[in-house]
UniProtKB/TrEMBL annotation:
Keyword flag Transmembrane helix: no
Protein name as annotated: Aldo/keto reductase
Database matches in SUPFAM superfamilies: NAD(P)-linked oxidoreductase (SSF51430)
NADP-dependent oxidoreductase domain segment(s): 17-255
UniProt record similarity statement: Belongs to the aldo/keto reductase family.
């Protein structure tokens, strides 16, 4: 099976490449996740808000891939603050599993860091329902509030990210706190027609979208491109046959 690099989290390694499922619905979601698992993906990202946890769970069960071989993420929407335990129980039931590899606060409730909500995720981790916990759409200052108030820093911060968003200060600030940077919407946020990406794509005989995925992996960022199209799911995963040179990375970084 194709080898995808990983990053270390407290509860186990996270593959740097996963399948995103935002806006994947019904049978489209089921087929996309099932195909991704058949192709070799071992990281699936969903969320309570997406309304597709049941389809993800069905695909995982039908795939025949052992549960322990798949890194599974879902997210707590702020609308469910105050009923974290019930929400997690429902997510586990829909996903057909007795634990999550990663549970995230989907975005800061009412725009606040909300350490009391973070404490509920830590409690779920402490009783074994979740292996690692983190956040999404948090600023670095909000990460620090959680750390200062609870003594524990999120393992992951999932944020909108791609070459056009690249900021070395953001990268450094996450790294020095030990927070893994996970990017979403990599293609939506990137000009795939940029000359820099096209030049690198020609050099490796790949698509510019594949260059974007490889850019994440070579930097050590997690990336979760979403697709329900089998050919695109396959192409997004077919990025281990090449890597970017330091000069190529620098040319793409300069897009930020």
């Amino acid at each position: 099976m194709t080898s995808i690099p990983t990053a270390a989290l407290p509860g186990g390694d996270i593959p740097l490449l996963g399948l995103g499922t935002w806006q994947s619905e019904g049978d489209d979601c089921y087929r996309a996740v099932r195909h991704a698992l058949d192709v070799g993906y071992r990281h699936i990202d969903t969320a309570t808000m997406y309304g597709n946890e049941e389809q993800v769970g069905r695909a995982l069960a039908a795939s025949g891939v052992p549960r322990e071989d798949v890194f599974l993420t879902t997210k707590l929407r702020p609308a469910d603050v105050g009923r974290e335990h019930e929400t997690l129980a429902q997510s586990l039931r829909l996903l057909g599993t007795d634990y999550l590899d990663l549970w995230l606060i989907h975005w800061p409730p009412s725009g606040d860091a909300s350490p009391w909500v973070w404490a509920e995720l830590l409690a779920a981790r402490n009783v074994g329902l979740v292996r690692s916990v983190g956040v999404s759409n948090y600023s670095v200052d909000q990460l620090d509030i959680l750390s200062e108030q609870t003594g524990e820093t999120p393992a992951v911060n999932q944020i909108p990210w791609g070459p056009d968003d690249y900021d070395p200060q953001v990268v450094e600030q996450h790294a020095k706190r030990g927070v893994v940077l996970e990017g979403y919407s990599p293609f939506k946020r990137t000009n795939l027609d940029s000359p820099a990406l096209q030049a690198v794509a020609r050099a490796h005989d790949v698509s510019t979208a594949q260059v974007v995925v490889r850019w994440h992996l070579d930097h050590g960022f997690v990336v979760i491109p979403k697709s329900v199209t089998p050919a695109r799911i396959e192409a997004n995963f077919d990025v281990t046959g090449f890597s970017l040179t330091p000069d190529e990375l620098a040319s793409i970084d300069a897009l930020g």
